[in-house]
């Protein structure tokens, strides 16, 4: 008698996949939706690869039932998606677009019909342009508008949704929006960026506070949870020199602790806050901000893991451009002069976009966070391989994706065995979609979208592999 393979994943572990509204939905102006900052920015010359944008994307807005049926066929037990703020509130606040409410309500019902648990992300970078026009995240008005938007979502969908997160990847939308000027609003000003980042954390705290109030009223389930999704990007020094180690510590403080501490400790790292305020006079706190952060620690942390970064001291490099071509080795050293820089390790393996493939980093990163923040629940909210998938004899043979995800699932299992409370795994992404600056050439999905043939959906080799992973609860991979 053959023994059935087993795994360390708990029986109620959520096997999901993820997308984001602007990248997958299309319908950019359908049924009363207002413009987001990405609707405007992506149409500016030179901002994205080959001028690509999300006007149509994968047309999930019109084809969500077909897509959910594919999710059910794959065996997904959860689906992480974001809500388009301007689809619900075209001006960012005020008048509600009922067609937008209906779309997400229908999507949630369709998921539940197939026993797929929704995980909602409230903000995945598509700020209503109307709010950007009055200052965006630099304005306290946007903080108030986000609280209003969050409450609207709780009221409309809270009866059916248990898992929520407020923001996705502050490191990216603030870092690239306000420090490197490569995402909207295209600004390079640390003072403004620090203030915008602080307002995001205040908006998060207000949304968490409202969520818990609504739990008391029964608007959202008593067992509902609300979290925050961050990039998890472990840093290691390229050498054991004191200069490289100090640079790595600085990278940890600025790119990890600054972004995790406010939502898991309710405060900033004191020495970095003092440095920022002394250097730039930001962030400026309103009177209630300190207590808001302290009183509204989130229930879980979502981690988006793709790569590790090797860190070196940086006396000379000032470069914030990244590889958006998919030509391996075309990226330059990314760094902030006098602080640190990212460097390549010649002994490592890299993707076509110069991202190191290091599966162990998924376990290492969560272990480091557990050491700093204690026994917090984790959801792996993104993990995936961006590649140009080959089509051989009509089959999308994405074997490198299978190998990538398989090794990372093994790392997640290792973390569980070492006591990390990992509750779900959401590969990025369920379906091929717009990859922001990279356009449609960078594919992540289990489902191929034939952009030359009416956006027809085709299952990749990885689709059937993930189906088996889910059936075995991670034992077969």
Architecture overview:
It comes from Photobacterium sanctipauli. This is Beta-glucosidase. Belongs to the glycosyl hydrolase 1 family. There is one protein chain. By secondary structure, the protein is of the alpha/beta class. It has one domain (about 15-255, about 300-470): Glycosidases (TIM Barrel, Alpha-Beta Barrel). Helix content is about 40%, strand content about 15%. It contains 15 helices and 16 strands. The chain has helices at about 20-25, 35-40, 60-75, 85-90, 100-115, 130, 140-155, 170-180, 190-215, 240-265, 270-280, 290-295, 360-375, 400-415, 460-470, and strands at about 15, 80, 115-125, 165-170, 225-230, 235, 300-305, 310, 335, 340-345, 380, 390, 395, 420-425, 445-450, 455-460. The strands form 4 sheets. It has an 8-stranded parallel beta sheet with strand order 1-14-11-7-5-4-3-2. A hairpin with a 5-residue loop joins strand 15 and strand 16. The protein is globular. The two termini are about 20 Å apart. The model has no long low-confidence stretch (mean pLDDT about 95).
Give short descriptive properties of this protein:
EC 3.2.1.21, globular, beta-glucosidase activity, Glyco_hydro_1_beta-glucosidase, alpha/beta, 15 helices, 477 residues, TIM Barrel, carbohydrate metabolism, GH
Short note summarizing the structure:
The chain has helices at residues 21-24, 37-41, 60-74, 85-88, 98-113, 129-132, 140-157, 170-179, 190-217, 242-264, 270-280, 289-295, 360-373, 399-417, 461-471, and strands at 14-15, 78-82, 117-123, 163-168, 225-231, 235-237, 300-304, 309-312, 334-336, 340-343, 378-382, 391-392, 395-396, 422-425, 447-450, 456-459. The chain is of the alpha/beta class and 477 residues long.
């Amino acid at each position: 008698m053959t023994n059935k393979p087993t795994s360390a994943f708990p029986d109620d572990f959520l096997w999901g996949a993820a997308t984001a509204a602007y990248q997958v939905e299309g319908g950019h102006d359908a049924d009363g939706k207002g413009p987001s900052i990405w609707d405007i920015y992506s149409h500016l010359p030179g901002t994205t690869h080959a001028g690509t944008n999300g006007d149509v994307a994968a047309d999930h807005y019109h084809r969500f039932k077909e897509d959910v049926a594919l999710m059910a066929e794959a065996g997904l037990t959860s689906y992480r998606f974001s809500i388009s703020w301007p689809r619900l509130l075209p001006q960012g606040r005020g008048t509600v677009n009922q067609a937008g409410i209906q779309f997400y309500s229908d999507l949630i019902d369709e998921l539940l019909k197939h026993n797929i648990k929704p995980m909602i992300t409230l903000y995945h970078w598509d700020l209503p342009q109307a709010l950007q026009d009055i200052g965006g995240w630099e304005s306290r008005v946007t903080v108030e508008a986000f609280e209003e938007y969050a409450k609207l979502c709780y009221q409309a969908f809270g009866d059916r949704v248990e898992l929520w997160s407020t923001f996705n990847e502050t490191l990216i939308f603030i870092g690239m929006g306000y420090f490197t000027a490569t995402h909207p609003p295209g600004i390079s000003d640390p003072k403004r960026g620090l203030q915008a980042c602080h307002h995001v954390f205040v908006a998060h705290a207000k949304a968490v506070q409202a969520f818990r109030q609504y739990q008391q009223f029964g608007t959202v389930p008593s067992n509902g949870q609300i979290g925050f999704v961050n990039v998890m990007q472990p840093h290691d020094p390229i050498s054991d020199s004191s200069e490289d180690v100090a640079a790595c510590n600085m990278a940890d403080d600025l790119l990890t602790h600054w972004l995790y501490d406010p939502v898991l400790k309710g405060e900033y790292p004191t020495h970095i806050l003092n440095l920022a305020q002394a250097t730039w006079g930001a962030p400026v706190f309103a009177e209630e901000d300190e207590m808001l952060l302290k009183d509204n620690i989130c229930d879980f942390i979502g981690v988006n893991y793709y790569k590790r970064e090797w860190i070196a001291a940086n006396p000379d490099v000032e470069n914030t451009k990244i590889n958006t071509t998919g030509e391996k080795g075309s990226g330059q050293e990314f760094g902030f002069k006098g602080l640190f820089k990212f460097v390549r390790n010649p002994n490592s393996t890299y993707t076509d976009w110069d991202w190191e493939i290091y599966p162990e980093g998924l376990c290492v990163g969560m272990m480091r966070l557990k050491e700093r923040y204690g026994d917090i629940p984790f959801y792996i909210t993104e993990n995936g391989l961006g590649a140009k998938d080959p089509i051989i004899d009509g089959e999308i043979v994405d074997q490198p994706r299978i190998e990538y995800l398989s090794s990372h699932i093994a790392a997640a299992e290792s973390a569980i065995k070492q006591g990390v409370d990992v509750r779900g795994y959401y590969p990025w992404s369920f379906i091929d979609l717009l990859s922001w600056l990279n356009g449609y050439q960078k594919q992540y999905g289990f489902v191929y979208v034939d952009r030359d043939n009416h956006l027809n959906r085709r299952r990749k080799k990885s689709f059937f592999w993930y189906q088996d992973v889910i059936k075995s609860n991670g034992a077969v991979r």
